Amino acid sequence: MEELATTLYAKSMFDASKEDDCLKLVYEELNLVKETIDSNPRLMEVFKHPLLSNNDKKNAIKDIYEKNLSKLTMNFLYVLIDAKRFDMISSIIDEFNNLYDIDNNILNGTIITKNSLSDDEISKYEKKLTTSLKSHVKLKNVLDDTFIGGAIVKIGDKLIDSTLKGQLNELRKELINNSEVSI
């Protein structure tokens, strides 16, 4: 039930922002809200507090965001408060972001490495993948200290393994296959 509600609220906001020709603005605003809430867990506790009225919660939203958010985004947050769905805000924004990415032909993926990559290094991978996949690619760097070297890139159901371990496994398979053919 919660997943359905998340999808419905995200889709409604996506459609409204697209209709008002402010999709990119709303995308940025919602991600500002998500960042604020994710970085301040106690803030969500305020919005979940049963003794605070909806008006108090709306006033808190107004105090925090009024200067930084459009009327559409503010009203959306108010609707979530009235519907007692504000606790789902992070999931709703994640779903909104998925819709935004689909609409803008953006593929999200992860690049798994032993050591953290610089923004320039990530950007180089993104540019190469954008060219080869013919879609804009955004990568998030995830660390795995079991790697010896190289990287694994995961985008949807695609996996590109350029780790040292992966290359050694490929070499092993090749040697096994070649040894069975000869002699």
TrEMBL record:
This protein is part of the stalk that links CF(0) to CF(1). It either transmits conformational changes from CF(0) to CF(1) or is implicated in proton conduction. F(1)F(0) ATP synthase produces ATP from ADP in the presence of a proton or sodium gradient. F-type ATPases consist of two structural domains, F(1) containing the extramembraneous catalytic core and F(0) containing the membrane proton channel, linked together by a central stalk and a peripheral stalk. During catalysis, ATP synthesis in the catalytic domain of F(1) is coupled via a rotary mechanism of the central stalk subunits to proton translocation. The keyword Ion transport applies. Keywords: ATP synthesis, Cell membrane, CF(1), Hydrogen ion transport, Ion transport, Membrane, Transport. It is found in: Cell membrane; Membrane. One of its GO terms (cellular component) is plasma membrane. It is a peripheral membrane protein. This is ATP synthase subunit delta. GO terms for molecular function: proton-transporting ATP synthase activity, rotational mechanism. The gene is atpH. InterPro entries: ATP_synth_OSCP/delta_N_sf, ATPase_OSCP/dsu. The lineage of its organism: Bacteria, Bacillati, Bacillota, Clostridia, Eubacteriales. SUPFAM superfamilies: N-terminal domain of the delta subunit of the F1F0-ATP synthase. Belongs to the ATPase delta chain family. It comes from the Bacteria. HAMAP family: ATP_synth_delta_bact. Its main location: membrane.
